[in-house]
Amino acid sequence: MGFDFQHFVELLPEINRAFFQTIYMISISLGVAIIIGLPVGILLYVTDKGLFMENRFAQTILGFVVNLVRSIPFIILLVALLPLTDAIVGSTIGPAAASVSLSVAAIPFFARIVETAMREIDKGVIEAAIAAGATPWMIIKDVLLLEARSGIISGVTLTLISLIGFSAMAGTVGGGGIGDLAIRFGYYRYDNTIMIATVLILIILVQVIQLLGDFIAKVVDKR
After folding, report:
1. Which long-range CB contacts under 8 A does 124-131 form with residues at least 24 apart?
2. Whole-number mean pLDDT of the chain?
3. CA distance readout (Å), 114 to 55, 56, 161, 175
4. Do 110 and 33 contact (CB within 8 A), yes or no?
5. What percentage of the chain exceeds 70 in pLDDT?
6. Which of 51, 117, 182, 203 could form a disulfide with 148 if both were Cys (CB 3.0 to 4.6 A apart)?
7. From CA 204, how far away is CA 17, in angstroms rounded?
């Protein structure tokens, strides 16, 4: 059985609900990743050897924690964080619950991207700011974030696309969204129409995000 358009139309309310659940999940997770991951990424960079806030102990500990979380496969992280998820949102199923695990996975991912973006900055610019008497906060705000903004926006795009993939995986444990729809209808009921529809939706969503992210990154890149 291939794609049945009439069946697709009948399932549009379910597909629409799943789509917006996915948007809800990835929006919350991306917001948390930026709020926490951006400062973590900055700290990973500025505390490294030879930088103006060098602190090898802090850099090592922070790097270890980031690498530890990143090394855990998402499906295992999803299950391991169920007690924390229940404590925060009072449930282990649904989009809000899935957002907890997605956020935890996204924070170290985005932090490393921020760190990498800042490593591409010419250190001469930082040295010039130090020589001019700039404080660490001024250097971070007016030099690092400004110079790395294009790379950070590209990192936001990459993180968002990764979250879409993770959110689909969250459907396997009742996280809701497109992944949950694909599992419940496409896999358990052998519904090819839903499987094709969900794959197409995810492909289109990723393409739109990538194109938009690339465009914004080019606009802000003044180098």
Report:
1. 126/51, 126/52, 130/52
2. 89
3. 18, 19, 16, 28
4. yes
5. 97
6. 117
7. 17
Residue 1 has pLDDT above 70, yes or no: no
- Read off the tokens for 33: 């990743």
Amino acid in the structure at residue 144: L
175 contacts 97 by C-beta, under 8 angstroms: yes
Give one DSSP letter per residue of 11-66, joined into a string: THHHHHHHHHHHHHHHHHHHHHHHHHHHHHHHHHHHTSTTSTT--HHHHHHHHHHH
Are the C-beta atoms of 192 and 186 separated by less than 8 Å? yes
Closest CA to 28 of 194, 203, 159: 159
pLDDT at 115: 95
pLDDT in tens, 39-52: 999 999 999 988 88
- Two tokens, residue 206: 């990723």
